[in-house]
Amino acid sequence: MPIGTVKFFNTDKGYGFISNEDGSGDSFVHITAVERAGMATLNKEQRLSYELETGRNGKVSAVNLQQA
């Protein structure tokens, strides 16, 4: 599981980005993944472990979020 730090998350817009610690770039995260993890929002600089999943639209996003 990759580990990253929340770079940005906008609760009103329902999305944000996690910066991967291995330097492979940023991962998109949607509010539905946050809610499925039992969280209401993500805070800047929060460390998370997550999995990457390709959605129906062909885009990759972070899912199965857990506190790291």
TrEMBL record:
This is Cold-shock protein. It is found in: Cytoplasm. GO terms for molecular function: DNA binding. Its main location: cytoplasm. Residues 1-67 form the CSD domain. Transmembrane segments: none annotated. GO terms for cellular component: cytosol. It comes from the Bacteria. The lineage of its organism: Bacteria, Pseudomonadati, Pseudomonadota, Alphaproteobacteria, Sphingomonadales. The keyword DNA-binding applies. PANTHER family: COLD SHOCK DOMAIN PROTEIN 2, COLD SHOCK DOMAIN-CONTAINING PROTEIN 4. Keywords: Activator, Cytoplasm, DNA-binding, Transcription, Transcription regulation.
